[in-house]
Amino acid sequence: MADPIRLKAWQKLSDRCVHSAPFDSPEREPFSQCLPGTRVDLLDTLRTAIGTENKKIILLFGESGSGKSAVAHTLAQGLHASGALVASFFFSRQHAICSNDDRLIPTISYQLGLCHPRAKEVIIKALLDDPSLLKLARSRDQQFTRLVLEPLRELSMMWKEKGLTAIMLFDALDECEPGYRNRRLGQLVDSFARVLEDKRTANFHIVVTSRPYSRIEDALTKPALVLRHVMENFDARDDIERFLKSFFDDISRAPYVSLPKPWSSPANLQLLVDRVSRRFIVAAKIVTFMEQKIERPSDMQQFLEALLRTQQLTSNVEELYRYLIPSSDQASKGTSLLVYILTLCEPLPILDIMRLVQYDARPVLDSLAAIVYVPPINSAEPVKPYHTSLRDFLWDEAAHYNLTCDCLELMGGALIKNICGFDDASHLHLNEIEDFAAKRDEAVTPALAYAAKYWLHHIWAHASLD
């Protein structure tokens, strides 16, 4: 029978983890990944680089929309299948909990513990020896040593005997808040550098993807450890052509779509590839937008023809956003609603967005489904952009002010004393209230919980812009 004290220590670590951060978390679906047969040269280069003895940090730089996350996910899939991936963390500004490193160490440690019982034992012992180890106030260095470095040393001895290499993969490091004057990010990199320089973890590598920001370069202060690759140095034209042709072929084979066959012509395909240039995200958005119009073939054909006449689509995804948003059925409301959603500290389901904005947002969101994920209206899944480049493209300083007003208005009308309706609840502990969680969730909607949690943040954010 399992020791309840040890189980409790392991559960505490699990509670501190970001379970949505690993590459295969269902919360990251739909996964961004490479189409079979694409990015072959780049993926082969990265896999070969992992075997390089001196360069232990494989850094993949790429501009927004170049396909870094798709490459990272595909690489992680392969490494996981071979047993080489020991941990992954996909940073994302779409989720506040994934946009900083507050819970990175527990999340990495938990994944290491799942790799092998011996690593798990080292981690549990550290938590039992020092029950305060998981507190945010504790030294990051101590946390890293006890929860990451020591279990890695334990695992490394086994990997070395079997001739294996272990990999950690971090995607979108540029979306991790750097901390005061980049200090937090620098400390994190220094901690991992210490692992990589430790002779007892010789068969350990890290793969990192990021946009080419100076703060990332500044944090990587040990060039002897870093092997850099740049997405734009790998020609993606053939891969984008294969991706678009696959979509056009699927459309041509669809029995319910009345379009010329084949669709589109080889000449049009080549012209569209030229318009897209090297940006996979642009090609993906074009496909998503046309999929929206699949039941209206004439609209899909007109959209493609309009794109082929466009001369401004050759450089980046922002040009496509400039085309897609005004061409939506709800263009006037669409832009302001998108800015509103992108400013949320945590993504919300449609019904809760509607509770905040106080109008039926579904038709507006449906018209923008090429660039934001729109779940069914009664779903608990959140509305979220398909790509973080949309956040860079759309920004309005008034959004925090609008959110502050909506939060205060919602709380003013919905917050009441004893909102859950408990009888004499002041004399009860929460664990004494039957079905407490269900009753709380019924009385406090996610929108109301969001308003109570973040109204002050939006006031502060708005004030800091003045």
TrEMBL record:
Domain called Nephrocystin 3-like N-terminal: residue spans: 52-211
Q: Which Gene3D superfamilies match?
A: P-loop containing nucleotide triphosphate hydrolases
Q: What is this protein called?
A: Nephrocystin 3-like N-terminal domain-containing protein
Q: Which PANTHER family match?
A: AMELOGENIN, NACHT DOMAIN-CONTAINING PROTEIN
> Which keywords does this chain's UniProt record carry?
Repeat
The record's annotation in Pfam families points to: NPHP3_N
